[in-house]
Amino acid sequence: MILDINAFVGRVDAAVIIRDLLINAKVMTATFVNRRAISAGALIGIAAEKIVMADAAAIGFAATHKDVLENPDHIAKHVLTKGLDAGTAYEILSIDIADVDVGENIGAKLQIDQANADKQIAQAKAEERRAMAVALEQEMSARVVDAEAEAPRAMAEAFRQGNLGVMDYYRMKNVPVDTDMREAITGLGDEPSPGQTR
Predict the structure, then answer these.
(1) In terms of residue numbers, what domain contains 137?
(2) Secondary structure (3-state) at 107
(3) Domain count of the chain?
(4) pLDDT tens column, 127-186
(5) In terms of domains, do 114 and 65 share one?
(6) Are residues 27 and 89 in the same domain?
(7) Cβ-Cβ contacts under 8 Å for 88 (sequence gap 6 or more)
(8) pTM score, two decimals?
(9) What are the angstrom distances between the C-alpha of 94 and each of 50, 79, 188?
């Protein structure tokens, strides 16, 4: 069982109950001091079999995890001087800290995992937007093709109704050719208009 502790203060009577449960637990117990375990948080933290501290975490009155590594007795002295057993049916006679292990930085690992998950979500959303843009571009291209196919029918209908003469038709056909010629001279156009050759 792993306890993630980030506590300034708390009710000592409740902390004693939690401490007793940890001491009597039938499973291995470990405390991860995420940021701080002070007062009642320290009492709960030291009841576990193992104590793991994040970088810059504090337990008891220790400023950082490095202080605890340098002198683990600070935890015991702090708990004893605070009288955390006052008003309970228990008396803390001594606290023996046999070993302090530096484990992996679980908080940093969780933050990295969250950042990777956020990155994958952002990539999926970007891919969705890209796919939507491609679909929209294809739809617009299809509409242009439909419109280009409609133009000859509209001109044929205009001829039948007498709204378009032969000279009007030649002038209209001359516009794309004239545009292509101007672009070729200025070097702006790389591709000829549909149906035109160079």
Answers:
(1) 105-147
(2) helix
(3) 2
(4) 999 999 999 999 999 999 998 889 888 888 888 888 888 788 788 888 888 888 888 888
(5) no
(6) yes
(7) 12, 13, 16
(8) 0.33
(9) 17, 9, 89
